[in-house]
Design brief:
alpha/beta; six-stranded mixed sheet; five-stranded mixed sheet; binds adenosine-5'-diphosphate; binds magnesium ion
Length: 368
Amino acid sequence: MSSTATQLGKQDSAKPQPQLRALLVEDNALDAALVLRALYKDGFEVTADVVQDEAAFTRTLRAHPPEVVLADYNLPNWKGMEALKVLRSEGLDIPMILVSGALGDVTAVECIKQGATDYVLKDGLARLPGVARRALREKDERGLRQQAEQDLAKKVDELARSNADLEQFAYVASHDLQEPLRMVTAYTQLLAERYRGKLDENADKFIGYASEGAQRIAVMAEVLQTLAPAIQESGARVTHDALPVVWADRTQLAQVFQNLVGNAIKFRGKEPPVVSVKAEKTTHRWRFSVSDNGIGIAPEFAENIFVVFQRLHARTEYPGNGIGLAICKKIVERNGGKIWVESQPGSGSSFKFTLPRHDPDEREGAPS
Ligand SMILES: Nc1ncnc2c1ncn2[C@@H]1O[C@H](COP(=O)(O)OP(=O)(O)O)[C@@H](O)[C@H]1O
Ligand SMILES: [Mg+2]
């Protein structure tokens, strides 16, 4: 029951001693003194509480949390290993070293399995300082690792948040830019129509540059260049209409065509792929199509394939990750259009998507 605070250490020592707050679970005062002496002799400046039962242990733990617990294995009123349970229930990560008169190898191993950091025999106390040092170092390392893990988790969290912000920003920005850009295009086109040949040659040229710059030019050439290796390797023939100018993010539109033409080549049948890209004008929209002579898709999967990670084939059969069409869908819908597939197994597929037409004198928003 009794709890005694003992201090051992040289106050006048020139070299600062490592401070150590220890909690001893020990019923034999002489043994306790020997333990402290072993630590002190090795240079520790030890402050220690000595307790003999669970109540005193718990109380002292709370009042003066130690850096290390040194527990005798056998006590008249308690068992040293019980100290571990208390440490756990208090949520404390404090190393516990068993200091015992005689401890068979089997018992020692069992104690360490249960969570004791190490054990030292009372007639081999010279080992204690080294064991204590290692226990403290390991605890520091655990702390650092935990800190690093927490920092990492925080960074991942921040990154996710800033990504979401960025995405939101890009969306808002592209949305906000659409209206003014549309006006610039409309009026440069008007300028071109009304005043071509009426001003000087330079004026015509400048108007030409301006309308070209304000419009996003068709992206097919770029797409075909990216897919050149796949086209060459498969012997594909890719044809395309003269494609119209549309209002959409150029990079994103290129991505849509790239995914669709890429799939048309990838999911080919026995014949070399024949792919055609077309654009038709409907009342209020452009309707694009990418058609192939490949393996086709059963109607019951026509919707599923636009869901992320949904694929109809093993990766060994056709490589891929199943995100291409999900991205296409997201891009097309963000730009105010729709995407779908018309296909029968064995007789090719035709992927179609619409985008609003933004002719200078037209209003948007009508259905196709
Ligand atoms: N042109 C096509 N012909 C036949 N099946 C296709 C075609 N395009 C897509 N698919 C089917 O839709 C699935 C999803 O396509 P996608 O999202 O681009 O992923 P991935 O190309 O990585 O497989 C494909 O795995 C395939 O089963
Ligand atoms: Mg794909």
